[in-house]
UniProtKB/TrEMBL annotation:
It comes from Desulfuribacillus stibiiarsenatis. This is Recombination protein RecR. Keywords: DNA damage, DNA recombination, DNA repair, Metal-binding, Zinc, Zinc-finger. It comes from the Bacteria. May play a role in DNA repair. It seems to be involved in an RecBC-independent recombinational process of DNA repair. It may act with RecF and RecO. Belongs to the RecR family.
Amino acid sequence: MHLPEPMVRLIESFMRLPGIGPKTAQRLAFFVFRMDQKDVTQFAKALESVKKDITFCEECQNISDTPKCKICQDPKRDVSVICVVEQPRDVIAIERMQEFHGKYHVLQGAISPMVEIGPDDIKIKELLHRLADERVQEVILATDPNIEGEATAMYISRLIKPLGIKVTRIAHGLPVGGDLEYADEVTLAKAIEGRKTL
């Protein structure tokens, strides 16, 4: 089937997204083609704005459109507890359950020697810098329950324990090999409640 070049480029662009194959990409491209010009323009601006206007919070490393994210700016958050996660989407997953009221630290990845990601490649130094604040009493390690997440949790635990700060790990009510992003609120709430000291 011969398609106009702009349509081919759009289909190829959609196929670069995770989980989008040729058929879905084609369906999305034709959907965009049928959209009103105003909606297409808004969609394009939203894509551009994500790259241009979003950066990382200078405190917790979560995504933000201001120097400090809304969670770090919230005076009601408990500064004595920091929940360490791998990715910004994990913050969203935990926030959905509305049970955790502490602060976060986003590592922006996990230790994975197989793909040459070491401790210096993720935001561990930034976490240790935050722990100089004497108000921090507990660090909850909420990395994914897979090999990389477990290795990262153990590495961070060994660094924090000598500081005299309580280190806990979320309970394994989550499926091994799964991602926090896909867990439901009840499972996540039980995992947080059942955390244990490492």
